[in-house]
Amino acid sequence: MKNKQTPSAGSRRKFLRNSALATIATAVGAKVVFASSMPEGYIPVVLQDDDPYKLFNKDKGLIVLNNKPWNIESQPHLLDDKVTPADKMFIRNNGLIPESLDEGTWELVFDGEAVASPKTYSLKTLKEKFEHFTYQLTLECGGNGRSEFYPPASGNQWKTGAVSCASWTGVRLRDVLEDVGITDQAVYIGYHSADTHLSGNPDKAPISRGVPIAKALQEETLLAFEMNGGPIPLAHGFPLRLVAGGFPASASGKWLKGISVRDKVHDGAKMAAPSYRVPCKSVAPGEEVAEEDMCIIESMPVKSLITYPKSGAMIGLGDSLEVRGHAWAGELSVSELHVSIDFGATWRACKLDPPVNRLAWQHFSTTLSFPEEGYYEVWAKATDSNGVSQPMVVPGWNPKGYLNNACHRIAVKVG
Ligand SMILES: Nc1nc2c(c(=O)[nH]1)N[C@H]1C(S)=C(S)[C@@H](COP(=O)(O)O)O[C@H]1N2
Ligand SMILES: [Mo]
Q1: pLDDT digits (tens, 9 = 90+) for 96-154
Q2: Chosen domain end from 263, 296, 329
Q3: Any transmembrane segments, and where (predicted)?
Q4: What residue numbers bound the domain in which 372 lies?
Q5: Is 241 in the pocket of ligand 1 (CB under 6 A)?
Q6: Are 108 and 255 contained in the same domain?
Q7: What is the pTM of this model?
Q8: DSSP string, 317-330
Q9: How far apart are the CA of 172 and the centre of ligand 2, in A?
Q10: Per the domain annotation, does 94 fall within a domain?
Q11: CA 140 to chain centre
Q12: Alpha helices (H) in 36-142, listed in sequence order
């Protein structure tokens, strides 16, 4: 049988080649006339550039902060949709996006000190065996707003665009953990993913974070295989992603290969200080903080974003201005949203919708009028269900520049 392919392998190969050619033709936007002479695996020159907007199907308004790894942020006025569409969603990668992902052979391994015994599920089994749930879940990068801290914090200089609220469909991690069988030693879960470290070292994970077991067992914590009703886009974790809304988005592992149920706080890559940790007690700007004085970020703080109009709007005197946006508060809900047109001297309450489900952002809207011609700013301030409001200025400086939930503001010119 040496050097001979079975007919099924041969036809499968041919099928793969034909479908690859069809994909290429679609991407090129024309028939590739001499396609039959094209070497196998060859990528046409026209597709060889690494234009991230084409590569990831992103709106031209997104801003590339880094290309190795890819970090791309959105902008407030692009986040106006109630459900964030894929082309407006920020991308935050710590390593290299995995290649050749095969949904058909994808498996998820459960292991760790606190499982009765390790268990592996194919993606197909996960989909067939467990009930499906769909939730809209807010995912905000812990470093969103980092660019405003002074002294500056190193890392991607996110402005306000590292947040999304897409609709995620999958099975509950809770249901699967119940099937796996966990012991009462379980305190944390950690995820393992298929992306690779920038160094190229295959034994080194770029990131392997997790959540406390109580968060893992929440109804909304999903092993998701769909986003916005279709397959998860490659950059956002195809074909399987852990989604734990309300926590820093770093807890939502993309390209999910494994879950370890741990008898201690997970100790994977980027779990240790200073990553995704803030000083347990507030510190002076620029102060050095010992690693043992840094605490893991869990629920994200209350925050809001004005998504309409775009900052810099111009209206006529006497015109009214419709203002709208979203607000979210980590594990809590948002109870009030106020706006100010006089730099915070006075505030007025906006209409605020309840979330479509727990951990989804909430929409606010109001109509404003302005007393005379000139320059104004509209500031938005959300208050969470514990009565805590967003600060008007950049809050608690911390060495890595996390959790900036200062009020969002836009400029408006009247007349
Ligand atoms: N496997 C893996 N999962 C990951 C990351 C990553 O680099 N690799 N980045 C995390 C971080 S820090 C954030 S903010 C979110 C970003 O999700 P998005 O790119 O889908 O917007 O994914 C998280 N999950
Ligand atoms: Mo992040």
Answers
A1: 999 889 999 999 999 999 999 999 999 999 999 999 999 999 999 999 999 999 999 99
A2: 296
A3: none
A4: 303-414
A5: no
A6: yes
A7: 0.89
A8: TT--EEEEEEEEBT
A9: 22
A10: yes
A11: 6
A12: 52-55, 123-129
